[in-house]
Please model this.
Amino acid sequence: MTLKLSDIRRCFQGVVPSMVATADGDGVPNIVYVSQVYFVDDTHVALSCQFFSKTRRNLDENPVACAEVMDPVTLQAYRLQLKFLRSERTGPLFDTMSLRIDAIASQTGMTGIFRLIAADVFEVTAADAVAGYLTATPVDTPDGASLEGMRTEIRGLQWVSERINRARTLESLLSAVLESIEEFFGFSHTIVLLHDEANNRLTTLASRGYGESGVGAEVAIGEGLIGTVARERRLLRVTKLDTDLRYARAIRRETAGAARTLQAEIPLPGLPDAQSLLAIPLTIGDRLIGVIAAEDRDPMRFSEWHEAYLDVLANQIALGIDRMIERCDDAVDAADPVPAVAPAAPPAVSASRATRRLTYYRQDESIFVDDEYLIRNVPAKILWKVLGESLRTGRTEFSNREMRVDPALGLPPVKDNLESRLILLRTRLREKCPDLQIVSTGRGRFALRAGAAIEMTER
Model:
């Protein structure tokens, strides 16, 4: 073999489809395109066994093959001579290759149909450049690892860790994480979703680089690219996904305009023409904290260096989020008494602006403001509780602790994520009903501020 496979790693990212040729026992050839030839090590690659029954029959009769891969930057093609070794249906290699296929299948409604049957492992007996191709100027910098000035890997860890440690609230921590990732890596479209153990879903709490924040958008565990990453607790880097994402989002747009037989949803932020995605689970041990994801229009935006480096950073981010939530819980439970109701307080709202009509639907625990969807589940019940209390008694000050001890809110006894639910509520109000606000007044306390008369209806 005249070159090392690690020297042509870009060829194995799936940006350009590869050709694989086999022949049966009589020498009759068959050529197929595959989405990706998977790099195993310097002398081995793997192919995904899904639908290619002819290729499989040929390998059983004649266990050799030839693959042609292409560098998406220089357009140089390379020819690999392959010797079939084995098919793996379990194990780390199978799981890694299966993750991408399962995620795309879930995103496009093909779960159980579009799936990996086996990872076919080949020994690479020869690898050579194909002569006669018009190639671009070689790229001198390492694959995706070029950093400016003194921004080394250690500096990057310090950069993000300092931002996390300086944060005083969960909201500021999440904002600092996305801001530092953009400054250090140049990733301009990012999102953080936290795991809600009560309903086993991911909820969007922060995003950067999108016109709409999407705060409150939910993803079920195992649903789509991000949900699959959460279920498997494993990082996923995908290139050339624009076709799959465009299809899935078109389906969602079609159903979103239907009558209210569908549960109201907040659209997940996303580029309509994204071509690459990097999604990383935030975990502590086996416990899922959330998922952080980045996407880009450049199919080569995310490299293996980004994948490995951000996997380390994800541990710091997960610990920071968990520590912040624990700090908020400890502060609330240690000192906050349940405040007494003020019997003769002035009204909480005034009619200085137009009346806001809020409707609470008991069936799906959702609130609409002026016929536009606002929020649902526990944050909706919190808002309905404080609004009702304020209109009845004039009271405007509340504590986190009284939310926790109210059985009507249905908070789980352990890891209730109350702080993240309040962030979600505050953000949705700022975006959809700015003259009705929930503001922090200290650790474990918040207040209702209204600049409009409130009309409440329950159905």
Q: What stands out?
A: Residues 304-335 form the longest helix (32 residues). The longest strand covers residues 77-88. DSSP finds ten helices and 20 strands in the chain. Residues 139-150, 247-252, 255-262, 332-352 have pLDDT under 50 and may be disordered.
